[in-house]
Amino acid sequence: MEPAAAVETAKHVLHTFGIIILAGLACGLLSSRLRIPDVAILLLAGMALGPAGAGVIDIHADSTLNQLILIFGSSYILFDGGASLRLKVLKEVWITITVISTLGVVITAAVTGYAAHLLLGLPLAVALLLGATLGSTDPATLVPVFRQVKIRERVAQSVMSESAFNDAIGAIMTFAVLGMLTGSGEISVGRALGDLLWQSVIGIVAGGVLGYLAAVLIAHEKYDFLAEYAPIVSLMAVVGAYLSADNLQASGFMAVFAFGIVLGNKDAFGFEAEPGEAKQLEDFVQTTAFIMRMFIFILLGSQVDFALINQYWLPGLLVVTVMMLVARPLAVFACALPDRRARWSFKEMLFMCWTRETGVMPGALAGMLLGMNAPGAQVIAAVTFIAILMTILVQATTTRWLAKKLDLLV
Predict the structure, then answer these.
(1) How far, in Å, CA of 110 to CA of 104, rounded?
(2) Is 274 helix (H, G, I), strand (E, B) or coil?
(3) Does pTM surpass 0.70?
């Protein structure tokens, strides 16, 4: 690329970023006035500003810039979510989190896939590929929703933890079914479980080690020589946790989530930051996480392919409705009801049934399938876009209302 062309490209990107930040600030103010999670308004703003609307934002889903924003943004939001969790709460509900993050994804994928088989007329294997793509929930959506809607601690932390942990099995299922479809592999339960175990354990270990190291550097009584640079340490460690796990073929998102849990619970490991430094880090994390939400959801909205959606909108709408109203409740009750230790109430489980927003990870998987020209990729992408729009615009905006009706607000 010629130097002049490179400068013009840089100016264009800078102009686009300025529009995203300005629109994000307006969405944040509107969200506060309407008292609904900002992710829904950000998504609508992206749709209005994208190629199908005003045309002032046009960053392609398969571009390096878009992938960089998605990976780092989702990682930082996950770190923020992990840091807000408390180990004493997780100890109470870990069985539910483990089961719903694994078996729950399988149930959701199977029911949704069968609905797609019946309603869209897809071959069963292609329908299962669609179900697997939609099987995982979205931490980039759920974490900020529960940052803004304060509900009963163990419910919020269970849903956020599930969304962080189920990304791995959703991806594993998707590519296992794809391998069967293309003849490049067979579905092996043992191999899938082995992959899941590897991704989970290595991701948690990598994130936990870096989280402990970061806690030492910013809060240890003797070795906290980076205490005043805690925000920069958090940025470096988020990138390091994701890349170290990814290089080991493990889940980078799980690593940054584990990193957040350890750093957020550093007092449990005997570390205590100075009040002023702790406040500085908290403010930085919240501000950075909000900026990442601006970019992720405005870009996600700008990339919605309305022409593709138009081809399959009615059966796609019905498939997503089955996922929301049948598959998700089945998964929640099957996985949470047997957990006698957690003693979930009916109201708590009903709330968890409604909180399963689809977003960044399913969108990324659908994009990969399109790029690979996988069987049924066009239909899968269309239904995934419909799921993203429906779950974020309907479920995220009604979270506070439902929590109030079920008496779960704190």
Answers:
(1) 10
(2) coil
(3) yes
DSSP 325-341: IIIHHHHHHHHHTT-TT
Cβ atoms 70, 293 nearer than 8 A: no
Q: How far apart are CA 117 and CA 405, in angstroms?
A: 35
What one-letter code names the amino acid at 137? T
pLDDT value for 220: 80
By C-alpha distance, which of 143, 124, 133, 139 is closest to 172? 133
List, in sequence order, the alpha helices (H) in 84-188: 87-120, 124-133, 139-148, 153-182
Question: Sign of the C-alpha dihedral, residues 120, 131, 366, 325?
Answer: positive
- Note the pLDDT of residue 225: 82
Does 81 have pLDDT greater than 90? Answer: no
DSSP 56: -
Residue 409 CA, chain-centre distance (Å), reads 23
**DSSP assignments along 181-229, one per residue:** HHTS----HHHHHHHHHHHHHHHHHHHHHHHHHHHHHHH-TTT-TTGGG
236 phi, psi to nearest 5 deg: -60, -40
Per the CB < 8 A criterion, the answer to whether 186 and 180 are in contact is: yes
Query: Which of the four pLDDT bands, split at 50, 70 and 90, describes residue 39?
Result: confident
More confident residue, 175 or 338: 338
Instruction: Please give the C-alpha separations between residue 135 and each of 162, 183, 331, 343, 409, in angstroms, as whole numbers.
Output: 12, 22, 11, 25, 27
Domains, in order of start, for the chain: 72-405 (1.20.1530.20)
Through-space distance between the first and last CA atoms of the chain, rounded to whole angstroms:
55
